[in-house]
Amino acid sequence: MLSLSPFRIRPERPTGAEWTRGLPLELREVELRRGGTTIFSGVNLTFEPSRRYVIVGPSGAGKSSLLRVLNRLDDPQGGEIRLGGLPLKEIAISEVRDHVGLVFQAPRALPGTVSENLAYPYQVRGETVPDSNRLTASLVEVGLPEGWLTRDVGGLSGGERQRLALAVALGRNPEILVMDEPTSALDPESARLVANALDRRAEMHGMRTIAVTHHRGHAPWLGDTVVRMERGTVVEVGPLGEVLARSESSVWESGGGTGS
Amino acid sequence: MTVLAPSWMGLAYSSVPIGLGLIVLAVRGLGQVRPMIVALIRLVVQLVLLGLVLEWVFSTDSVGVVGVIALIMLLVSAQTVGERLKGSGWALKVESFTALAIVTALVMAIALKWGLRNDPWYSPRVVVPLLGMVLGNSVTAIALAAERFHSDLNADRDLVELRLSLGATSRQAALPALRNAVRAALTPAINNMTIAGIVSIPGMTTGQILAGARVQDAIRYQILVYLAMTATITLTTLLLLRMRLGRYFTRDRQLRREIDLAS
Questions:
Q1: Judging by beta carbons within 10 Å of its beta carbon (0-12, 13-18, 19+), is residue A5 exposed, middle or buried?
Q2: Measured torsion, CA atoms of residues B8, B14, B17, B23, in degrees rounded to the nearest 10
Q3: Alpha carbon of residue B43 to chain centroid
Q4: Which of chain B's residues have a Cβ under 8 Å away from the Cβ of A121?
Q5: Going by DSSP bridges, is the β-strand pair A208-212/A52-56 parallel, antiparallel, or unpaired?
Q6: Which of A250, A246, A209, A204 is nearest to A67 (CA)?
Q7: pLDDT, position A112
Q8: pLDDT score at B201
Q9: In this model, does residue B262 exceed pLDDT 90?
Q10: pLDDT the model gives residue A252
Q11: Helix H segments across B85-123?
Q12: Is the bond preceding residue B120 a cis peptide, omega within 30 degrees?
């Protein structure tokens, strides 16, 4: 529709509810369209506090797009997402982004140094950046070398960027961490280390994680509940072992897919 | 020394060199003969028509006529900006018109009232050429800004959304794109001012000197025009980008898709 509203005085919605920790995130009949295409529809899911979820399914099933509605980079056209009883849209967007971290698939880093990337979430909020000891600790947590704070991100490999993105997202201790193929560029040893770091976060801070993966071997490290998607909808939710035993090989792609 | 304007016979003499050029182009089969002739004819016809219009406008000395002409100039400018960015639809034209109208009104008012102490303030002999110079440069500048902002946001979509995910506001997430757009818009103006009087003698100074004005007067007039042009370019760019920001991002810090922008 033609819209002639360039006169938007306020760039942001002024008010919104606060985020309450420890509530389930529920998706009810959620539908996302883009142009004339339906990306996914009829999605019903509940992400409970402190749980670890793995989303699997063939490329084009809508997995990556599903992750994007959880921190409201996109809003679904149909259905509703609620935190406890409260619609996600009624919570202030700054609160949502504070509490739902998102690690993109094969992420680029922000131009600059490693420490500039780690500092960014604090700077945009006008907060004091943690000292270099704490920044270094967050590097070590994901298996990156201690002395890398001043390193330019231009020289990082895919796996290093993946781990840096994770460290940046973990920095502000999100209650929900959403990850798109977080271990796709990692060797088994690094993937294991990252998975252990996520375990510790879950135990210590009650962080819940939702990870898309194509790696059959990595799935058990990343979670215990599997959401299986196909052709734009959720076809199965269940304990990892059961779903793994039943699912056909099409769910898994060797070496990780390009995603949807 | 007497200053004389060229007569029609003088123009005929002055067209001898370009006639020679055309003959060589034709004889050697190098092309560009037809487009050059068409362009020359258009130049003469367009300027003669402009002369007739201006003569009439100047003779009326009416605020209404000046207003209508200013409105037409603004509409054509906004239309030109809109056409530069494919698929931008009506939005960019409306935004450009708004930004140009607000800023030129402010800049012209100050230039006419206090800069030139024009009497009457709307005297078309001053308003129309001044507005023409101010708008002509601003159109290019804001078109460059809009183009750069659009292409940067699309090329670095992943980084913009990464910033948003890390807690940035829309403005913070778009800051690198905004900076590049501002640079694209302001660089030509900054360069022009830097070389003015050294590499180039600005066209208006040349014109006034040829027409017999005092050199010092022509120079001060030129400085005033640069101040007005640069102010208009800067302020329209800022205002337009502010409006563009609200179009590319939702109020909930989401970067819209191109598909939604075009509709």
A1: exposed
A2: 0
A3: 19
A4: 166-167
A5: parallel
A6: A209
A7: 96
A8: 82
A9: no
A10: 63
A11: 89-110
A12: yes
Contact A6, B94 (CB under 8 A): yes
pLDDT tens digits for range B54-109: 999 989 888 999 999 999 999 999 999 998 888 778 899 999 999 999 999 999 99
Which parts of chain A sit beneath pLDDT 50? 1-7, 254-260
Q: Which of A49, A110, A39 is nearest to A69 (CA)?
A: A39
The Cα A166–Cα A101 span in angstroms is 9
Q: How far apart are CA A151 and CA A154, in angstroms?
A: 9
* Tokens 């056209």 sit on residue: A77
* Distance (Å, whole) CA B208 – CA B229: 18
Identify the weakest region by mean pLDDT among A187-191, A220-224, B48-52, B200-204: B200-204
- The span from the CA of A219 to the CA of A205, in Å, is 22
CB contact under 8 A, B251 and A74: no
User: Does the pTM exceed 0.80?
Assistant: yes
State whether residue A172 sits within 8 Å of chain B by CB: yes
For residues B167 and A125, the answer to whether their CB atoms sit within 8 Å is yes
Among A37, A211, A6, A41, which Cα is nearest to B257's? A37
Tell me what the mean pLDDT of segment B47-58 comes to.
Answer: 92
H or E element at residue A47: strand A37-47
- Please, what sign has the CA dihedral across residues A126, A128, A132, A138? negative
User: Does A89 touch chain B if contact means CB atoms closer than 8 Å?
Assistant: yes
Looking at residue B2, its pLDDT comes to 63
- Helix then strand count (H, E) for chain B reads 12, 0
Tell me the nearest-neighbour CA distance from A193 into chain B, angstroms: 23
> For A10, which residue in chain B has the nearest alpha carbon?
B251
Residues in B lying within 8 Å of A, measured between beta carbons: 89-91, 94-95, 98, 158-159, 161-172, 176, 243, 245-247, 249, 251-255, 257, 259, 263
For B39, residues 6+ apart whose C-beta sits below 8 A from its C-beta are none
